[in-house]
Amino acid sequence: MSSPCQNAPASNSLPADAVFPLPLTPFELYYYLDDRPACPTTFPVELLFTGTLDRERFYAALEETVRRHPLLRAAIDDRSGTPRWVPAAGEQPFIDWDDSTAPITHPDGEFIDLKSAPGLRTWVRTSPGQARVLFQFHHACCDGLAALEMVKDLLAAYKGDQPIKRDAELLRRRGDIVPPDTPKPSLAVSVRDALYTLNVWSWILLQQPVPLAAPAGASKPSPDPILPFVVATLSAAESRGLRDLAASHGVSSNDLLLRDWLVALRRWNETHAGSARGRLKVNVPVSLRTRDEARMPAANRLGYAFVTDDGTATDDAALLEVVRSETHRIKDWKLALYFLGGLTLASGFRSAIRWVLSRNASLATAVLSNVGRFAPERSLKRGQKWTCGDLVLDRVCGAPPIRKLTRAAMIVIEYGGATTFCLRCDPQHFAASDTQALLDAFLGQVRRTIASSDKAEPK
Predict the structure, then answer these.
(1) What is the CB-side half-sphere exposure of residue 96 using CA atoms within 13 A?
(2) Domains of the chain, each with CATH number or no CATH
């Protein structure tokens, strides 16, 4: 009997290049200007399968999917001094299929030159009964949530299901800070917002965090593999325990994870720098997507906010209260919008963004990006995994970009009932074993928190 997976992939592509040229948004300009061969602003997304991945079907599904996401097949024309997205001249996104023994490599390393190539690369590595798919996205093209939406479309096309209908015209709204139907603010409100934006950015720039301490004797970076990250997982039972504990204390699961990340970072610095003192700051990406943007193709629709630990909290419970207060302020004051507002003001003076990026300083000690639950199909219940015939998607993971002095970046994703943590550290300062040690320290702290559920306060 034939499997539903043997149907031809559904066709639902957009009119070719209908929206180009598109000027870069301030957020895209930020990542375009911050990009450099020594520290590329790219990020990985990895899919691990058991079963047989059909090469012809996968290629067809990927081609169909990329057609539906214009920015993943675009390049940047910067010749006029005003960068804009244009169709990549005859250049298809890179794809490399080989057996599992072949290394993940590219002639340009991790760097993607958007002036000459699209911001998507794909590697597939297979062995009997297993397959690994690694995507590399340029952050100027899209954020992590958009990358996962692209993955959903790919899986639907591979299975022969009808993907969500994408509306390329929505890309014209990808840089909007407020909904397009918002009434024009009065002069007084505009001045107030501009002053508050300057105040937020002065705090971001002037209150410098301490960097994550580099372990002594870390090995030099290796050209292979590129896009290295390490992974750890909480079981479904542990994940439920974390959610239940958060609810019992009136905080979110992410509040607990942020607190435990700050605890792990401070202990790491105490061990490797000889001091736990100094301000720690965690960059918390915040999605700005609205319900009517669900059909937007892959793009950046987020801003950044920051959670700070100045070292004055007396214990873990006090630090949790600091985190809870700051995350409430981020939501109530919509602080991620003011981050974008500052980029919008600076984008009028291209040199201003370059100055911010060229400073020998960082915006954050580390990153924690919680993308929530990944459900490739709406019908999947918590704990279920995507299947197609004998093919099972076992794990989804990835990690944010690394930038100068922000030496650790982690993504949290729930899939199949389990919670997965994926960590990248700056390979100029951290060996793979160091990155694993930091992740192990964080996971140990999280498990101690879960085990404290019978106590008055999570520790």
Answers:
(1) 15
(2) 4-173 (3.30.559.10), 187-287+301-454 (3.30.559.30)
CA triplet 171, 174, 178: central angle to 5 degrees?
135
CA distances to 110, 177, 336, 352 from 126, in Å: 22, 43, 40, 46
- CA–CA distance from 430 to each of 217, 434, 445 (Å)? 9, 6, 21
Q: Is 64:166 a contact under the CB 8 Å cutoff?
A: no
Enter the tokens of residue 404: 């100068």
Cβ within 8 Å of residue 133, ≥6 positions away: 46, 47, 49, 53, 58, 122, 123, 124
The predicted model scores a pTM of 0.93
Residue 17 gets the label, from left (phi > 0), alpha (psi -120 to 50) or beta, of left
Is the Cβ–Cβ distance between 176 and 20 less than 8 Å?
no
Nearest residue to 398 via CA among 222, 233, 229, 145 = 229
Q: Which residues pair with 95 in a beta bridge?
A: 122
Per-residue pLDDT tens, the chain, 459 aa: give them.
333 455 444 444 445 468 999 999 999 999 999 999 989 999 999 999 999 999 999 999 999 999 999 999 999 999 988 899 999 987 679 999 999 999 999 999 999 999 999 999 999 999 999 999 999 999 999 999 999 999 999 999 999 998 899 999 999 999 998 767 777 777 776 777 778 787 888 888 778 899 999 998 655 555 457 899 999 999 999 999 999 999 999 999 999 999 999 999 999 999 998 777 899 999 999 999 999 899 999 999 999 999 999 999 999 999 999 999 999 999 998 999 989 988 888 887 767 777 777 776 789 999 999 999 999 998 899 899 999 999 999 999 999 999 889 999 999 999 999 999 999 999 989 999 999 999 999 999 999 999 997 554 544
